[in-house]
Protein 1
Amino acid sequence: MMLSREVRLVRRPEGALRPEDLAIVEREVTDPAEGEVLIRNLLLSVPPAMNPRMIAGETMAGGAIGRIEKSRNPSFLEGDLVSHRFGFREVFISDGKGLALIRPDTDLPLAVYLHALSESSGFIAYGGILHIAQLQEGEQVFVSTAGGSVGSIAAQIAKIKGCYVVGSTGSDEKVRWLKTEAGLDEAFNYKSAPVRGQLKTLMPRGIDVYFDNVGGDHLDGALAQMNVLGRVAISGMISGYNEPGGRTVVRNLSNSIYRRVTLRGFTVADFIHLKDQFESDMTGWLRDGRIKYHETIYDGIAKAPAAIIDLMGGANLGKMLVRLAH
């Protein structure tokens, strides 16, 4: 028997998440029974979409990569690496359901399997921009929160496809990274001036495709600048995550009528048939440096609450991770 620490939601926040809303608790973990495995987590993913799914009294959910330390399940060997969505805990017992074996590419760091090569970041970006938005070469593309793990991938895929790409982000440091490292044509700090005005200046030819992670003023500004038959792929609406019911305010929706704009929300289930193609394409792009990424890493389970809160406040550049072990 051993002790494992995990992060739990003490109470459902009203507005922004605060330190007192989270707690680190210890629980006993027994040896695995027949058909079970014991997993020690190595890396935890901190996704923006965790906020609307939080349930008071439960362990915070999220993607993770762990190593099988003990196995009594013939499908898993001790030492195997697995990905899962059982979240913010150091050690836990599993019956094998919800675990996916990882056979990492030796040329790539393990952490990319929680962002660029993960279902919840890279695949969302890939399927959203190519399948849902039906991106065409040479189009005018706007990506919100382009400094994050989803937006940065979507924006760079659009550049690979020969498009003019503008991204929004929350700091001047992220603006520099997007332009100098990620290779976007333009980027802007949405905190420095209204989104609509910045889009009008930076995208004089209008917007053919908007990859939306924010809703609110970003969606409003994009709708005002959309071209006829433009497409909006809605991946998330961060602006509403701290509001009751996840509400976000949009005032320019009528523009979608006159410009015949398509707005479509989506999940990975909409393009699961592209998974093998995604893994092949993304592995190649990462190997040859066509996809750049940045990671913000907090070390230790004790830092996990701060990582969650800081992500919600936009303190991360790229993917926010918590590293538990090497």
Protein 2
Amino acid sequence: MDPQQVAVRASRREGNPYPAGDPRYAPTLDEELAWAKPVTPESLRKFHSQFYGASNAELAIVGDFDPEAMRTLITELFGDWKSPGAYARVPDPLVAKKPYALKFDVADKANAFLIGRQSWALNDLDPDYPAMLVANFILGDSPSSRLWERLRQKDGLSYGVGSQFAPNSFEANSRFVLYAIFAPENLDKVRRGFTEEMTGALKVGFTDTEVKNAKEAVMQARRLGRNEDSSVAGSLANQAFLGRTWSTSGQIDAAIEKLSTADVNAVLRKYLKPADVGYSFAGDFNKKK
């Protein structure tokens, strides 16, 4: 399970800061189980017949194939599979949230898990997006990131630590996620390490060497992805859904190449607010007492 999925589940535990009926409310685990209990094979078949279809699908194929033969086969397989209703994407606007700290005790677990999350008012077409890719890489999205060097290498507190930047392709509502696996008794030290590294990055800024190396690594990853058939197919399907072409990727590449150290530091300071990060913790925290 990736850190974002863990974050979603952790936020749904008892202690959710929003009341039922609030659009920001997330159900508890017990509520989710109660909702799932009435599900039957017949209800699943009914749901499938009401919502599943290929009318609004995107398909991308990469490789050595005969386009006409493939088009004929796809028509035979999916041509009559009509979607019962019109497609409508559910909007995902940014909602201001108060910082929170949710703790979920799980008995008899050797390791604990931390998730921190903050929402940012930008998307992947925002002029700040390329700089945020580089900033997040330096902070927590690489094997030599500041969070890794601090919490894993220097302090020896975490078995896995980092950050993720999940951009929205529509609304100005992107997610920044922190995560760490650690011994439950080290929770306070781990939290302090996160706060100090984020605060230090904002105060002192990233160095020219860090930014140069991060830009090269980010660009290398982007180029390597375009050499993999699966990645290219996924990108083409996503472009079809978003109404974009490879020119958008090229524009982002060019923007990354032009970034200065000052650009990257300015964007990080614009969006990252350590005091506003919401946290969820899961582990056997009672055992340490």
